Amino acid sequence: MAQGSRTVREAQQALKDKGYDPGPIDGINGPQTEAAVRRYQEKESINADGRLGPKTLDSLGVKQAPARTEFSEAGENVKNSYSKGGKEIGQGAKEMGTDLKHGHVIEGAKDIGKGVGKGAVHIGAGTGHAVKHAAKGATNAVTGDKAAKSTNQ
Fold this sequence. Notes:
Elements: H1 5-17, H2 31-43, H3 54-60, H4 67-101, H5 105-152
């Protein structure tokens, strides 16, 4: 994604301020910057592609993302977290079935409990991220409307 050197420089400074070393603050989106972006994205549950896209720039506070970007991210958060959570619950149920088959009722109960617990963690975290993005999208939509109205007056 092509970025102006000013935007890249601002992103590099924001990354550095947040403890991610992008290399020199030079406005060049090179390998060190991409690696820092990727680490930041992983921590913030943003698709870790190493690119300075709208979601990443918004999260860094460099450039406000369009509301639709935030709403889209909220949907991705829910989809991914429910998928991971469902897999964890399914794994716990599978292990429980194996334990019950061999007469280990208590171990089976522990396995399903672990699966549900791990699944709930994924679902809860994803839902939290989704709410954060939905709220930010609503804010961006309102802020954008106000900015447009004040420019037209």
